[in-house]
Sequence to fold (370 residues):
Amino acid sequence: MSRIELVRLRRIDMPLVRPFRTSFGTQTARDVLIVEVVTEDGVSGWGECAAMEWPGYSAEYVDGAVDVLIEHLVPRVLADRTLDPQRAHSQLARLMGHPMAKSALETAMLDAWLREQGRSLADFLGAVRSEVDCGVSVGIPTSIDALLSEVGSYVDAGYRRIKLKIEPGWDIEPVRAVREAWPDMPLQTDANQAYTRADTALLGAMDPLDLLLVEQPLPEDDLRGHTLLAEQIDTPVCLDESIISTAVADTAIAFGATSVINIKPGRVGGYLEAKAIHDLCVERDIPVWCGGMLETGIGRAANVALAALPGFTLPGDTSASSRYFATDITEPFVLQDGRLRVPAGPGIGVDPIPSLLDEFGTWSTVLDGR
Ligand code: NPQ
Ligand code: MG
Fold:
């Protein structure tokens, strides 16, 4: 087993091609934290942190992730320097919370470890496909006309499923307008916790719109509320924010709170945990799909590898690089016939372009534990 020489943290500022509004706020650029693990043999492994600048999606945020990595997570893995992602997973599990920061570090270790073996992440995880079906997530725009024109551009680009962000005041009308314009398009909604148990009738009013699912309508901790809602509406309930571990996934499935699961490696603390949730869902006959956190090519590559596992039977939010960025920091992921190709090279199978890391870079530090 090889050893870790140092860990480098970088922040890059990536402008978005259009503002992305959800019930928790508007994003115009991504402040992306990138973790690089360098081995004693000079091999670099890469991980991307899913956290946003402010704790809107979940409790994590970029400044907090930087702090916990510098003060707690990186020192744990530099204490023995062994490049062993599974061992690091157990060690980091002794520290509470911070799944996105842990995932970035663990993925960088996993990438370096796989690159040294010449093995792809897709192969390691158990991928069964060389390309994956792609969907796209559509933010809350300023008007229904703007929504129809944005959705139209994604339909023309070949996306195989459309997800509309909803919130109170922006739900039935816009969703109906999209359904009427594209009667056969696979369509789903995502509320990012914006509703309450009192909104059951309103959410049920969207049943005739033939939606694949409604994602995370209620607050993260309200599993029972999701069970009650699922009993009252026909549209399948899919949890995102609530599913923070395999144990919670098991509980939510057993209690009827979710019949589909959105798996995001950042939210659950990495690809090892994501794989375990996938395996549980296959056993329980629960379809899964791969979520997205506006990743650059680094995070996108790893997500596409995960989405190639057999239980990922629904198109994910694994969109093309161009959905978010005019220039990605890796070779861009390009949609072909509504699909993305699964990287086959060692590790995550893509490399950041050094000049672009510099161009977009706003901060970096090196931690070598010495
Ligand atoms: C979701 N993702 O499924 C999230 C929400 C989300 C693609 O809809 C910066 C970083 C901005 C992460 C905006 C999609 C974000 C973000 C939205 C995640 O709930
Ligand atoms: Mg979501």
